[in-house]
Write a structure and sequence with these properties.
By secondary structure, the protein is mainly alpha-helical. The protein has one domain. About 75% of the residues lie in helices and about 0% in strands. The protein is built from 11 helices and no strands. It has helices spanning about 5-25, 25-45, 55-85, 90-95, 100-130, 135-165, 170-175, 180-185, 195-205, 205-220, 225-255. Helix 1 packs across helix 5 (about 100-130) and helix 3 packs parallel to helix 6 (about 135-165).
């Protein structure tokens, strides 16, 4: 099968997934509204009681809520994938010359696009709440690259869960646990203020070096320790592993 044909198949699957999103606008609105509401609550309502050191409260909170938004928004992609796997839609593709990568990539690209829309809204709320970054152009280019890396990685994680779990309900339940890991990082609170056992967990999981790197770049600070390298290793590795694992799991499902 030629590359041109594969790209056409990916485009077809992408638009199919986008139409599914447009048919259920409530889910899209919720995925956009929840991070924006959290931004308002943490910055405006509780910001005055938070100790974030030398940071402006909004400047400290925005990177954490941004990561939460990316993770939360991609959960709908996993649920949509699971619905396709369990409602018979995939069975229709068995008799069609559609590569597995096209079907999966269509879901991923659809999830990425809807999450980008959510992120734009989040930044609008952030600036209205007092977010004032000092990042340079180079810093922003690095930030955008890191955001795309995390976005694609976590979307493939979501799709993998959608492929491997038996139904949309169980897939959705597991996907709702992923945002909890964001809160168990340096996203909302400095790890130095946490109890020892929780601090160890927070400092040795993939979200913390990512949040620390984004926060430092946005505010013009030096990136702590080797957090940039750790963020690239964590999320680059997760992207490769989940991509390969999802392709294999999907092919195995087709042969059952």
């Amino acid at each position: 099968m030629s590359m041109i044909t594969t790209m056409k198949d990916i485009k077809t699957m992408f638009w199919r997934c986008m139409l599914k999103v447009l048919r259920t606008p409530q889910a899209l609105v919720i995925s956009i509204a929840i991070p924006a509401i959290l931004m308002f609550l943490f910055v405006v309502v509780m910001g005055g009681s938070m100790d974030v050191g030398d940071y402006n409260v909004a400047n400290f909170i925005v990177p954490g809520i941004l990561v939460y938004s990316l993770v939360q928004s991609t959960s709908t992609t996993g649920v949509s994938m699971s619905q396709d796997m369990t409602t018979g839609m995939v069975n229709r593709f068995r008799s069609m010359a559609i590569p597995s990568s096209a079907f999966l990539t269509g879901h991923v690209l659809s999830g990425v696009l809807t999450t980008i829309v959510s992120t734009i809204v989040l930044f609008a709320v952030a600036f209205a709440s007092g977010f004032r970054p000092t990042a340079t152009l180079i810093d922003w280019l690095v930030i955008i690259g890191l955001i795309l890396l995390l976005l694609f990685s976590i979307t493939w994680v979501s799709v993998f869960i959608g492929v491997t779990f038996p139904d949309a309900e169980s897939a959705g339940g597991i996907l709702q646990l992923l945002p909890v890991l964001v809160f168990l990082s340096s996203a909302i609170s400095p790890t130095e203020t946490m109890p020892r056992f929780l601090r160890y967990l927070a400092e040795n999981q993939p979200f913390t070096p990512f949040v620390n790197t984004i926060r430092a770049l946005m505010n013009g600070y030096a990136i702590p320790n080797n957090d940039l390298q750790l963020a690239l290793i964590w999320w680059g590795g997760i992207l490769v592993v989940t991509f390969l694992a999802t392709i294999r799991a999907y092919k195995n499902k087709l042969t059952v």
